[in-house]
Design goal:
mainly beta, Glucose Permease (Domain IIA), 2 domains, 8% helix, globular
């Protein structure tokens, strides 16, 4: 056997070995996305996809995510667009993901870092690269979401969208794989499309003085309205406006997070929830009541996990621990742009928007 032949055989054997090692590594990595069929939320001229990846390392080896690429495909499987995060440069884009290393057997959540998609996107192919050479693919097939009901805003005042559900919002970044949260029974993100609303005064301020007291806030005690017709399916009105809640109680009642709340069923798998309501502000209501759009169902308070007086509003598909949030579109409001008012017939809201019902 010649030296050249020997080298070729050695290289072939090494290639086979390396391929085998990569294949074994791939088998030890499990990636799933939740929800299984993410909803397309219309945001202006584009759409947004709000979902999560759960990445699990089933080996004793350390894995580090070094590149994440997404390919957006149309109905004919033709690439529309490609985006990526990698470890290139002095401040690598891959480091914008909080957790990119799995030390041995472990599991962690990764929030979809590419939320904006082209309207004609029918499928997304994600390629995860670990340790520079281990590739694992996950295909995501979103679905359109059409809201049947016409929602009004739950407040008549001029309001600030203090926090919405964009990529940086705490609503968006609810980690139900975090062990203490998982132990309470949560298996999905019920606040995935939630909003925190804060009423403003004529000068655009949220509170007087330093805002240390509930009554300093201009929105404290403001009427909260039903966004659409429906039936009350869950209600609490006896909690104090003390910014406290019982964490263990969430195991039996996940809605306890919100202190006082009213949940209205509008249709199958469509429930609106108004939380952190003022003590006794819903005392005239009861489960089973039929509610009309625009009816007062409570007032803004600081019950439950509220840090300050505001209204937490969300739409979800059930009221249990398995609940997933769904988008909400509002009708007939104005977007306040300084001295300009832009009338919106129907749309979603963004963190930082100042809006008012027409």
């Amino acid at each position: 056997m010649t030296t050249q032949s020997s080298i070729k055989i050695t290289l072939l054997a090494f290639t086979i070995f390396l391929t085998s090692q990569i294949s074994n590594a791939q088998q030890n990595i499990k990636i799933e996305h939740k929800p299984e069929r993410p909803l397309k939320e219309k945001t202006g001229s584009n759409y947004s996809l709000n979902f999560d990846f759960v990445v699990e390392n089933n080996s004793a080896d350390t894995l580090r995510l070094t590149r994440l690429e997404v390919r957006l495909l149309d109905k004919n499987n033709i690439v529309i667009q490609q985006k990526f995060l990698d470890n290139n440069g002095t401040a690598p884009s891959i480091n914008t993901i909080p957790s990119i290393q799995w030390d041995g057997v472990s599991k962690s959540m990764l929030f979809n870092p590419f939320p904006e998609i082209n309207p004609v996107t029918e499928k997304l192919e994600y390629i995860f690269t670990f340790n520079d050479n281990i590739e694992v693919k996950d295909v995501v097939t979103p679905k359109n979401y059409e809201q049947v009901q016409e929602f009004i805003l739950p407040l008549k005042n001029r309001i600030l969208v203090y926090d919405g559900h964009d990529f940086y919002s705490h609503h968006r970044r609810f980690n139900y794989e975090f062990v203490p949260i998982k132990q309470l029974g949560f298996t999905g993100n019920f606040m995935r499309y939630a909003y925190d609303f804060v009423p403003l005064n004529a000068d655009g301020k949220q509170f007087a003085n330093k805002g240390e007291n509930n009554t300093d806030w201009y929105g404290f005690g403001t009427d909260v309205l039903a966004v659409a017709d429906g039936e009350i399916v869950a209600l609490e009105t006896n909690q104090k406006d003390d910014k406290k809640f019982d964490i263990p109680a969430l195991k039996n009642n996940p809605l306890a997070l919100y202190g006082n709340y009213v949940v209205i069923k509008h249709s199958d798998n469509v429930y609106s929830m108004c939380g952190h309501l003022q003590n006794q502000s819903s005392a005239s209501l009861k489960v089973g009541d039929k509610i009309k759009k625009g009816k007062k169902i409570g007032a803004i308070g600081t019950s439950g996990s509220a840090f300050f007086p505001h209204l937490h509003f969300e739409v979800r598909n059930t009221i249990g621990h398995e609940s997933e949030g769904i988008p909400s579109y509002f009708n007939n409001y104005s977007l306040i742009l300084g001295s300009i008012k832009k009338d919106i017939n129907k749309g979603t809201l963004a963190t930082g928007d100042i809006i008012q019902s027409k």
